Automatic annotation (TrEMBL), chain A:
<keyword id="KW-0067">ATP-binding</keyword>
<keyword id="KW-0173">Coenzyme A biosynthesis</keyword>
<protein>
    <recommendedName>
        <fullName>pantothenate kinase</fullName>
        <ecNumber>2.7.1.33</ecNumber>
    </recommendedName>
</protein>
<dbReference type="InterPro" id="IPR004567">
    <property type="entry name" value="Type_II_PanK"/>
</dbReference>
<keyword id="KW-0808">Transferase</keyword>
<dbReference type="GO" id="GO:0005524">
    <property type="term" value="F:ATP binding"/>
</dbReference>
<dbReference type="GO" id="GO:0015937">
    <property type="term" value="P:coenzyme A biosynthetic process"/>
</dbReference>
<dbReference type="Pfam" id="PF03630">
    <property type="entry name" value="Fumble"/>
</dbReference>
<dbReference type="GO" id="GO:0004594">
    <property type="term" value="F:pantothenate kinase activity"/>
</dbReference>
Automatic annotation (TrEMBL), chain B:
<keyword id="KW-0547">Nucleotide-binding</keyword>
<protein>
    <recommendedName>
        <fullName>Pantothenate kinase 2</fullName>
        <ecNumber>2.7.1.33</ecNumber>
    </recommendedName>
</protein>
<comment type="function">
    <text>Catalyzes the phosphorylation of pantothenate the first step in CoA biosynthesis. May play a role in the physiological regulation of the intracellular CoA concentration.</text>
</comment>
<keyword id="KW-0808">Transferase</keyword>
<dbReference type="InterPro" id="IPR002791">
    <property type="entry name" value="ARMT1-like_metal-bd"/>
</dbReference>
<dbReference type="InterPro" id="IPR004567">
    <property type="entry name" value="Type_II_PanK"/>
</dbReference>
<feature type="region of interest" description="Disordered">
    <location>
        <begin position="1"/>
        <end position="31"/>
    </location>
</feature>
<keyword id="KW-0173">Coenzyme A biosynthesis</keyword>
<dbReference type="InterPro" id="IPR043129">
    <property type="entry name" value="ATPase_NBD"/>
</dbReference>
Length: 444, 906
């Protein structure tokens, strides 16, 4: 095992904005025994390692974890406790025998990669290697989207339902997973909604261009929301919105035309004519409005705007598919509905908004992939199985503290949203182990 | 005006006719003869705007019984509907456009009628009903103060056609169903209130239709309506009508509509956004506790968004993200910094919040607009709507967004009348509103005295008469901030920018939202036409000096300011030096100074500003305070003095041979042009000698070559070489300048020479007084006096119909072999020392049709304007430069240098 592959194991995307997303790889023991029988079978059937490379793909797991940027220390503790920057606990064994690496390099992307470089050096003794954000985003998205389609190419070796489709549409509360023909994937528009919004036209692997963006993004929602509602967290703010009614805040077409549609130009009475257009009332102050309503109105304003600008850019380049990712979405149904509605509305149904299950982790995964020889490039989907550990049903897409290590602690809380297993080629059963209470999906 | 109680018979004299048919009433005027034409002119201007101009042709009183108390007067050819008012009732502002008719300022005297007959001038209307001359006023009110708006309408009786028409309305049966056109969301909401308070019905017009109609009208009818705004710099854009469509119209109200306009009435709402002015104001109110939209906007001017927004530099440690073209100061995330845990709303400055919000929304609108323009391949995007309010930062942000996203391919443009598109469109939805066919040259925009104080602000009801106006001006100066009275109206409703809620919050300094543009009153003058001899009317720009250059602006402001006390003295003296005149004089000085200060503050405030506009503004300001002709007595005195020496001069000239004579005459024109009360340097000269002394001294100094000297070419054209005698010009237009020596000792002898050579001469003079410039009203007298001593002039003047008394003789001896080519006088259609040849009187336009020589004389008409103008016929520009700076700039010469520029027909 070369040293280089150890450095691969830890990937982090730091964002100065709100969240630190961390993708790390943990190898797992190959449980199959490379016994005589197996080797002979391989030889007999002409099974090679299947690698066109000189080094083997490691079997292991990709983990996805988030921290709030403001709680970066928790993140550092987490990394430290798992020794991720040293290749993870799994490699302690041989690390202890290797000379301590003086210059461990961690790939990172996001604006905070600069900002926190010193902190990482000081606390963990590692150097941050800044990867281009856009490169990472696209690499991440391409990776996920390709995965999805591969699954349907089908490998008998993998359980058909083991991997969820990566992309889905979300209209009126209804989620529908979408099957995308690999040959028809490019070009697409990738809209990454972080604090701000980047719109990237992706033409292929490593072939992309940032064509637009907007400064009205997740940071705006959270920033304005904080000022207006005193919510303590982004998630609280989102949750508030679910109980909101924007009619007290927004001026609707019906408010202007006395409850009537302005049908001549295709505007229904419930269309928002002016976001926050009703809060100009002279005898009401901020305190007189419900924070729930404010949050919802804000959410609609921003989601709708992003959807509209995205569609206009897709139109400009003749792109039919728009994938929305980034932490702003957080799998929030209303957000996705609003964005979808905007795209649907302005395109007259010509264009479709799609979302990515790994929406928050595009950049981090892309950073991970920027390691040379990360071994993910050539992965086929049948080599990947997704498992949901016990914590999943409780945390959903939430941010959380450091994950727990042993079985007892796991009973209380769990770290990762999900874990992507990467199989070493040929070891078709390795992924089944090492997860005491692995579940597929949601029931626990 | 107490019109209602006046004797109807007296009124009928004042009712003007548009038709050219003679009517018996004119007999009354003729009795006064020529002489009377001069003075009554002033009186008539006094009353301007106060009398209805009705088309009485075909009028009849219905009913056989003349005893009937209230006979119905039918005016079959009266084009206007009863209501001349249209509204756009928005969520926060009510915009009102109304029309007031006014009398044609010039008098339809004998000279005019004869010139019209001679030149075949018609009214130039292609329609069956006449266009009404009048004024279009623009007023705003806050929707929450709708009662002020109703009071305003009521006080001016706008819903009944305005005060001007009370006269005949009072005799008509009270109309049961007056209908007012309105648009905007509030048109529904307030319909009952209008019915109840004013007894009128609101006819709701489609909002989008109105917007587009308003924008199309403005873009076609108003020169330089549109402007770009980049980095604080405004640049007015002249748009070729033929190249106007298609364009994207972005109306930013509470929400935003984006409309693709393909032509008149041809448009489609292609997009929009719910993040608009309402969002700015709504969120702004929640976040800053501001009490008004304007307060919120004002706050933003002192803001710094870096404490609120997350910039690219914040993310990338102060570095640009140049790979994708983002500079460190680009906003990555609006409000992205307010997520900090230990800061609450109270910890942020409201100024910063307002700015950040403004940038977020403006930028967003700019971006979405551009994307839509791109989608339809539209190069031009016009932004309008109340959100903009002429606010520089807003415009810059939108422009920046469009520029940024389009890489400079698309341009954001703004409209001076941005808030009034809907109201104007509603106005145009009246049938026969008379605006459809208006051409750009028939509109003149004027800025009444209140303008500098109010900018584009909202205001309460304006005041009515001159007296109130003067006292307002006095109080304003005395008390500054304490005044709460509304800003006065110009006489008899000439202004729509009447007043404001609270006068400037900063005492006698001007408004703080300096960048906001003023909207003047649009004067509709149907008789104006484009001068037909312009070589390229589209490229024509009258101003030689563009005051967009700040140093130029500053210089001319200094010149005008220094000249002001002298002008006030003259003006007061012209009105007999009474206490009333003194009060008016002071008020004028303050009003004009305020205009100057306003323009120094924001040179684009009144639209594209050239020197000609500035000089005209001064004249209009004088007229606004009822100074009809400040130089009246001076002009008379100088005319008399000059006429006294004219016979000697003519004798001297007649003794010369042809070549010497022509040179002497041109020298004479240049020398006499020294007499100019508009020039400070020359005013000083006046104290040093008599007119003829100065004239002779001046002529003696005429050393050729002049600074610009095309005399030889001109002489060649006039006299030819040795044996080849050229054909004389058929008709020459002589644009004259000052009264006194300038016209009498300079231009008249030249005219006489042309007449002698068989060229018809048309003297072109101002319609209204400006400084000591001679007017078309005064010229016939002058010519008549000169003709007493000169047969050539007499016969030509008789032939031209200038000598009314003598005409009888001419008609008697019409077969007289001595009949001459005619000498005529036409008015130029303006009341300024300069001339914009895009807007000249119809009689000048008619006279020009057969002209093959133009002579422009004097600084105002040949240098300040038209120096670079090109004509279809031969043109001679003659002037003495009486201003050192202009001499240096224009001809690289010195004060008193001469220009004799001759440009043969192309």
């Amino acid at each position: 095992m070369e040293l280089t592959s150890i450095a691969l194991n830890f990937r982090i995307q730091v964002t100065a904005r709100s969240l630190i997303k961390l993708v790390y790889f943990s190898r797992h023991e190959d449980r199959s025994i490379d016994d005589k029988r197996k080797r002979s079978i391989k030889e007999r059937l002409g099974v090679t390692n299947g690698n066109r490379r000189s080094y083997p793909i490691l079997g292991g797991r990709l983990h996805f974890v988030k921290f709030e940027t403001s709680k970066i220390n928790e993140c550092l503790d987490f990394i430290n406790s798992k020794q991720l920057h040293r290749g993870g606990m799994d490699s302690r064994l041989w690390l202890s025998e290797a000379p301590p690496s003086d210059d461990v390099i961690i790939k990172a992307t996001g604006g905070g990669a600069h900002k926190f470089a010193d902190l990482f050096k000081e606390r963990l003794g590692v150097s941050i290697d800044k990867e281009d954000e856009m490169d990472c985003l696209v690499a991440g998205a391409n990776f996920y989207l390709s995965l999805m389609l591969s699954v349907h190419l089908g490998s008998l070796e993998v359980e058909e339902d083991a991997i969820r489709h990566e992309a889905f549409t979300h209209m009126e509360g209804h989620k529908e997973f979408v099957q995308i023909d690999h040959n028809d994937l490019f070009p697409y528009l990738l809209v990454n909604i972080g604090s701000g919004v980047s719109m990237i036209k992706v033409d292929g692997d490593g072939k992309f261009q940032r064509v637009s963006g907007t400064n009205v993004g997740g940071g705006t929602y959270w920033g304005l929301g904080r000022l207006l509602t005193k919510c303590k967290s982004f998630d609280d703010l989102l949750e508030l919105s679910q109980r909101g009614d924007n009619r007290t805040i927004d001026m609707l077409v019906g408010d202007i035309y006395g409850g009537m549609d302005y049908s001549k130009i295709g505007l229904s009475a419930s269309t928002i004519a002016s976001s926050f257009g009703k809060t100009i009332s002279e005898n009401k102050e901020l305190e007189d409005y419900r924070p729930e309503d404010i949050s919802l109105s804000l959410l609609r304003m921003i989601s709708y705007n992003i959807g509209q600008i995205s569609y206009l850019n897709a139109l400009r380049f003749g792109l039919k598919r728009i994938f929305f990712g980034g932490f702003f979405i957080r799998g929030h149904a209303y957000t996705m509905d609003t964005i979808s509605f905007a795209v649907q509305f302005w395109s007259n149904g010509d264009a479709q908004a799609m979302f990515l299950r790994h929406e928050g982790f595009l950049g981090a995964l892309g950073a991970f992939m920027s390691y040379e020889k990360h071994g993910l490039d050539d992965l086929m989907v049948h080599q990947l199985v997704e498992r949901f550990p016990m914590g999943a049903p409780y945390i959903g897409g939430r941010i959380h503290g450091p994950p727990l290590g042993d079985l007892n602690e796991k009973a209380i809380f769990h770290a990762s949203k999900f874990t992507l297993f990467i199989n070493k080629l040929g070891s078709g059963f390795g992924f089944l182990t090492d997860q005491p209470k692995t579940i597929s999906g949601a029931v626990f | 005006m107490a019109c209602l109680k006046e004797d109807p018979i007296l009124r009928s004299n004042d009712i003007k006719e548009d038709s050219e048919e003679t009517e018996p009433k004119d007999k009354v005027r003729e009795e006064g003869g020529v002489r009377e034409m001069v003075l009554p002119a002033g009186n008539s201007i006094h009353r301007s705007g106060s009398r209805p101009q009705l088309d009485l042709s075909g009028a009849a009183i219905q009913g056989n019984n003349f005893e009937e108390r209230h006979p119905t007067i039918l005016l079959p050819n009266q084009s206007d509907d009863i209501s001349h008012l249209a509204l756009d009732i928005g969520g926060s502002l009510i915009k009102l456009v109304y029309f007031s008719r006014h009398e044609d300022r010039s008098i339809d005297d004998k000279r005019k009628r004869s010139i019209k007959e001679r030149l075949g001038v018609t009214n130039g209307n292609r329609r069956s009903y006449p266009i009404l001359g009048g004024r279009l006023h623009f007023v705003k009110f806050e929707t929450s103060k709708i009662n002020e708006c109703l009071d305003f309408i009521n006080s001016k009786q706008l819903h009944r056609g305005g005060m001007d028409s009370r006269l005949w309305l009072s005799e008509a049966p009270p109309s049961d169903d007056v209908i007012i056109k309105a648009t905007g969301g509030g048109a529904h909401k307030f319909a009952d209130l209008f019915k109840e308070r004013l007894g009128v019905s609101i006819d709701k017009e489609d909002e989008m239709d109105c917007l587009v109609a308003g924008a199309n009208f403005l873009l076609k009818a108003i020169r330089h309506e549109a402007f770009t705004h980049m980095e604080g710099h405004k640049e007015f854009v002249q748009i070729d009508h033929n190249d106007l469509f298609p364009y994207l119209l972005v109306n930013i109200g509470s929400g935003v509509s984006m409309i693709k306009v393909d032509g008149d009435g041809k448009f489609q709402r292609v997009s929009g956004t719910n993040v608009g002015g309402g969002t700015y104001w709504g969120l702004g109110r929640l976040l800053t506790k501001c009490k008004s939209f304007d307060d919120l906007l004002e706050l933003s001017q002192r803001g710094d968004n870096r404490t609120i927004d997350m910039l690219v530099g914040d993310i990338y440690g102060g570095m640009d993200y140049s790979k994708i073209g983002l500079s460190a100061s680009t906003i990555a995330s609006s409000f992205g910094k307010t997520i900090s845990e230990n800061k609450e709303l109270e910890d942020y400055r409201p100024e910063d919040i307002s700015l950040s919000l403004l940038r977020m929304i403006s930028y967003n609108i700019g971006q979405i607009s551009y994307l839509n323009a791109l989608r339809f391949g539209l190069k031009r995007i016009f932004f309008g709507g109340f959100f903009i309010r002429g606010h520089a930062y807003t415009m810059d942000t939108i422009s920046f967004a469009v520029q940024f996203w389009s890489n400079g391919d698309a341009q954001a443009m703004f409209l001076r009348h941005e808030g009034f598109l809907g109201a104007l469109g509603a106005f145009m939805s009246y049938e026969k509103h008379g605006l459809d066919d208006l051409m750009v040259h028939q509109l003149v925009e004027r800025f009444p005295m209140g303008a500098p104080y109010i900018g584009g602000r909202i205001h309460g009801p304006p005041l009515g008469d001159l007296n109130e106006k003067i006292s307002w001006m006095e109080k304003f100066v005395q008390k500054g901030t304490e005044i709460t009275a509304p800003v006065p109206m110009a006489p008899s409703g000439t202004t729509g920018l009447g007043g404001f809620e609270v006068p400037s919050s900063k005492g006698d300094t001007l408004r703080s939202d300096a960048s906001a543009l003023n909207i003047g009153v649009l004067h509709l003058v149907p008789t104006l036409e484009v001068f037909p001899l312009l070589a390229d009317p589209k490229m024509y720009e009258p101003n030689t000096i563009d005051l967009a250059d700040p140093s130029e602006l500053e210089y001319w402001f200094t010149v005008l300011s220094e000249h002001l006390p002298d002008l006030v003295d003259k003006a007061v003296a012209s009105e007999g030096g009474t206490d009333d005149a003194k009060r008016r004089g002071d008020a004028f000085a303050r009003a004009f100074s305020a205009h100057l200060a306003r323009l120094m503050e924001e040179p684009a405030a009144y639209g594209k500003l050239g020197l000609a506009n500035l000089l005209e503004l001064r004249e209009e300001c004088l007229r606004e305070f009822h100074f009809v002709d400040a130089y009246r007595s001076i002009k008379q005195r100088e005319n008399e003095a000059s006429l006294a020496v004219l016979p000697d001069l003519l004798m001297e000239i007649d003794s010369m041979n042809e070549e010497t004579r022509l040179l002497t005459l041109i020298e004479g024109v240049l020398a006499a042009n020294i007499f100019d009360w508009g020039s400070r340097a020359c005013v000083d000269l006046y104290h040093k000698g008599t007119i003829i002394e100065i004239y002779r001294m001046s002529r003696k100094k005429m050393q050729r070559p002049w600074r610009v000297d095309d005399f030889d070419i001109f002489e060649e054209r006039m006299l030819g070489s040795e044996d080849k005698k050229p054909r004389p010009h058929k008709r020459a237009l002589l644009f004259v300048d000052n009264s006194g020596a300038d016209v009498i000792l300079g231009m008249l002898p030249l005219a006489r020479e042309l007449l002698r050579r068989g060229t018809e001469v048309v003297l072109v003079a101002n319609s209204l007084p400006a400084l000591n410039d001679v007017t078309a009203m005064e010229l016939p007298d002058i010519v008549a006096e000169a003709a007493k001593h000169c047969d050539i002039l007499r016969r030509a003047a008789e032939a031209g119909g200038l000598l009314v008394d003598a005409m009888v003789n001419i008609q008697d001896g019409s077969k007289d072999s001595l009949s001459s080519v005619p000498l005529m006088v036409v008015e130029n259609g303006c009341g300024s020392p300069c001339i914009d040849l895009r807007q000249v009187s119809s009689e000048l336009a008619a006279a020009a049709k057969e002209a093959d020589l133009i002579i422009l004389e004097g600084m105002g008409r040949a240098l300040h304007t038209n120096f670079n103008a090109r004509f279809k016929c031969d043109a001679l520009k003659l002037a003495m430069v009486k201003n050192q700076r202009l001499a240096e700039k224009l001809i690289k010469g010195n004060i008193y240098d001469c220009v004799c520029r001759y440009e043969p027909a192309p």
